[in-house]
Design a protein that fits this description.
Helix content is 79%, strand content 0%. It is an all-alpha fold. It has one domain. The two termini are 17 Å apart.
């Protein structure tokens, strides 16, 4: 199995997104409904990326 840089890029985006969301929720920049919407959108993005 060949691991391309795309996979690493996806993981980097995932980690950055998770951290940004956590910080956003902790500092109340992102309220809970917005966080849920962002997370749902991101999960959809992941699913479409990995299963195309």
């Amino acid at each position: 199995v060949l691991i391309t840089s795309d996979v690493y890029l996806d993981y980097a985006i995932m980690i950055i997104f998770s951290l940004a969301l956590l910080i956003g929720l902790k500092t109340k920049i992102i309220n809970r409904p917005m966080g849920v919407i962002l997370t749902a959108g991101y999960v959809l993005y992941l699913v479409t990326t990995f299963f195309k």
